[in-house]
Amino acid sequence: MASILGLSAYYHDSAAALVRDGDIVAAAQEERFTRIKHDYHFPLHASKYCLKEAGLKIDELDYVAFYDKPLQKFDRLIETYLAFVPRGLRSFMMAMPLWLKTKLHLPREIRKALDGRYTRRIVFTSHHESHAASAFFPSPFDRAAILTIDGVGEWDTATIGIGEGNRIKLLKTLHFPHSLGLLYSAFTYFCGFKVNSGEYKLMGLAPYGQPKYVDVILEKLVDLRPDGSLAMDMSYFSYCEGLHMTNEKFAGLFGGPARRAESPITEREMDLAASIQVVTERAVLAMARHAHELTGCENLCMAGGVALNCVANGKLLRSEVFRDIFVQPAAGDAGGALGAALFVHYQLLGNERKADTGDSCHGSLLGPRFSNEEVRAELEALGAVYEQIDDESELLRIVAAEAADERVIGWFAGRMEFGPRALGNRSIIGDPRSAAMQAQMNLRIKFRESFRPFAPVVLREEVGEYFDHDGESPYMLMVAEVKQALWRQLSDEDRAAMRDPDLRRRVNVPRSTLPAITHVDMSARIQTVDERRHGRFYRLLKEFKRQTGCGVMINTSFNIRGEPIVCTPSDAYRCLQATDMDVLVIEDFVLRKGAQKALSEAQKSKYLASFQLD
Ligand SMILES: [Fe+2]
Questions:
Q1: Residues with Cβ < 8 Å from 167, sequence gap 6 or more?
Q2: What is the Cα gyration radius of the chain?
Q3: 215-220, long-range: CB within 8 Å, 24+ apart, which pairs?
Q4: Distance 197 CA to ligand 1 centre (A)
C-alpha cells in the first residue's frame, strides 16, 4: 500500500492532496495558507499540511504525482506561437521566463521544494486524465461515463471517457484552440469579469438577460455539432496570440467594446450572459448524450472548470440522459492534484477499488482542523473576548436563536473545504426568510454589491419540501427551482423594481418566502446537508428548524471580496474585526463583535486593501 502526494501548480489554484491506501487523507489549495487568491506557486504550504495530517515525513512518500505534462504543454505553446508568428510574440515572451526557470524543469523544482528529501519516482499524468480520475475514482459508481470539460490542459479541452472498477480510459478528445471553457471565459472577459474567477458571476448574471445572441454565437463564433464537439472561428478570438481573450471583430458582433471592469452592467451583458449560458448548456447536454451513446453507462462523472456550471449540471440531471451524476467538488485545476494521486493508486498500481455508496470525498472536508486547545491559544494571542460552551446542544441553541434574530454569523467548525465552495465548515450563515439579510450580508460583511442571491443549505431529508429536487447535492453543484408553493406574488411596485437598470434593486425584490436565496428566475444553488458528512453543521440546521420551522439557511463563503476562504481561527477573527459580522463561532467558542476591541478605520482599510478585487 502506498502513500501518494498529488500536486497541481503553476497555472492557477495550486493544490496538494494526499492519498494513503486509497483513502483521501487530506487536500487543500495553496491560496488558503498564503492568503493570495488563486495562488499558482508551488503548493509548499498545502503539501506540508497534507504530510502533517497523514503523519508522514517527505521520505516516507512512495510517489509524487503531478497533474499535467509540462513538456506537452510547452509543445502546444510553441506550436501556437509559430502558427500566429509574429503576432503572438508579446504574450510568448511574457510566458517564457516562468517556463525556462521552472516549468521545463519540474522534477528538479519538485524535488527542491520537497527539501531534496524525496528521491523516488515522480509521475506526470495528463491534465484531463487527472480531471477524469478526480471525478471517477471517488464517485459512488462501479462503472460510469466520464466527461471532463475545461479551458485547456496540454492540448485537450474536453474528453469523454469511461471508468470501470479501478481503471479509466479516455475515448474521445477535443483539441485546443476549440474549447467550451475558453469560449465561456471569452464572454466572461468581454462582460468585464476576471477570467478564471469571474465565470461564476457570468452564470449568476444570466437569469437577468434574454438569450438573444444565441443565433449569432452559433452562426459566427462556434459550430456546435450534434456530438457536442465544437469548432470555433478563431478570427474572433485572440487568446492564441494576444493578451486578451477577444478582439475587435468579436466586439463588432455585440455592438462595441468589452465592458470595463467595475463599470455599470447593462442589458447587453445580461443578454450575453444568458446567451452563452444557453450555448454552454446545449454543448454540455450534447457531449453528455454522446458520452452515453459511446459508453452505454447509466451514470456520469464530471470534472474540469465547466463542471462548476451548476445551472448546466441541474439541467443535465433533469434531462435524464443519465440516471445519476457525480461532479468532483474540486472540479477546477485544484482537483487535478487529487486526481493525479488517485490515478497512481488505481491505474498505475492496480489497487482494487470498491465504490462507496455515498462517495469517498469525505464531504470534500479535507483541510486543516483546529482543536479547542489550539483555538483557545490563537484567541488568547489575539486578545479576543470569547465564551466557551462545551455543551453542543446549548451552543447550537444559542447560534440558531441569533440567526433567527437576523444576526450574521461566522461559522467555523471541523476541517476546511477543498474546492471553491464553502460547505458549512468555513461559512457565513444567516436566516433566508429575511428580505434584508441579502443586502446586509453583501454590504456589511462581504463589501460587495452583488446581483447574485446567496446559496441555501437545506436538510437532506427536506430538500423536496423547498426545491424541485430530490436526491442529494452535498457539494452545491446543482441548481434547482424553489417550490412554486413558496413563490410570492409580485406587486406593481415590485414589477417596476424588477425592471430597474440597477440589478441590486432587482435582486432585492422578494421572490419567495425565502427571498435571500431565490434568484430572479426562481432558481437556487442548493447544498443538501446530512448527518454523515456534515455532523455539527447538520445538527445546527436541525436546531434552526426546531426554533423557526424553517429547514433552510443561507450559506456563503467565509471571506470578504477578493480574500481566499478563511483557514485558521486568526483569519476568521480578523474577518470578524474588520466587518460588521455579529457573532463568530469557532468550534466551542462564541465571540460577539460588540465585545471585541474595535479596529481603527485605518486598520480596517489596511485589511480590506490587502485583497485584490476578484
Ligand atoms: Fe483543467
A1: 346, 347
A2: 24
A3: 216/253, 216/254, 216/275, 217/275, 217/276, 217/279, 218/279, 220/253
A4: 13
Residue 119 CB neighbours (<10 A): 10
Q: Which residues surround ligand 1, an ion (CB under 5 A)?
A: 150, 333
Length of the chain, in residues: 614
**Cα(223) to centroid of ligand 1, in Å?**
22
Cell of 12: 492557477
Q: Phi and psi (nearest 5°) for 352?
A: -65, 150
Query: Helix, strand, coil % (nearest 5) of the chain?
Result: 45, 20, 40
**C-alpha to C-alpha distance for 583 and 431, rounded to whole angstroms:** 14
- pLDDT computed for residue 183 by the predictor: 96
- The three-state secondary structure class of 16 is strand
State in Å: Cα 46 to ligand 1 middle: 19
Residue with cell 451583458: 269
Concatenating the DSSP letter of every residue in 487-499 gives: B-PPPHHHHHHTT
The single-letter DSSP state of residue 365 is B
Q: What type of residue sits at position 231?
A: A
Active site residues: 12
- Angstrom distance (rounded) from CA 345 to CA 347: 6
Instruction: Tell how strand 455-459 and strand 523-529 pair up.
Output: parallel
Q: Could you give the angle at which helices 70-84 and 89-101 cross, rounded to 10 degrees?
A: 160
Inform me whether the pLDDT recorded for 99 exceeds 80: no
Give the residue-averaged pLDDT of 286-301: 98
Q: Please state whether the predicted TM-score (pTM) of the whole model is above 0.85.
A: yes
Strand 324-327 relative to strand 523-529: parallel, antiparallel, unpaired? unpaired
What are the C-alpha distances in Å from 555 to residues 139, 422, 426, 450?
25, 8, 9, 15
Distance CA 592, CA 582 (A): 6
- Measured in angstroms, how far is the CA atom of residue 131 from the centroid of ligand 1? 7
Task: Give yes or no for a contact between 109 and 125, defined as CB atoms under 8 angstroms apart.
Answer: no
| Ligand 1 center to 614 CA (angstroms) | 20
Q: Rounded to the nearest whole angstrom, what is the distance from the C-alpha of residue 124 to the centroid of ligand 1?
A: 15
What spacing in Å lies between the alpha carbon of 488 and ligand 1's midpoint?
Answer: 41
**Residue keyed to cell 478564471:** 196
Cell, residue 495: 414589477
The three cell numbers of residue 473 are 447535492
Q: In whole angstroms, what is the distance from residue 300 CA to residue 290 CA? A: 12
For residue 161, the CA-to-ligand 1 centroid distance in Å is 15
Residue 472: its pLDDT value, please?
A: 93
Taking the C-alpha atoms of residue 1 and residue 316, their distance in angstroms, rounded to an integer, is 38
- Would you say residue 100 has pLDDT above 90? no
**What's the pLDDT at 449?**
64
**Quick check: helix, strand or coil at residue 339?**
helix
Q: How many CB atoms lie within 10 A of CB 107?
A: 13
Secondary structure class of 417 (helix, strand, coil):
strand
What angle is formed at CA 419 by the lines to CA 415 and CA 420, rounded to 5 degrees?
110
Q: What is the maximum span of the chain, computed from C-alpha positions, in angstroms?
A: 71
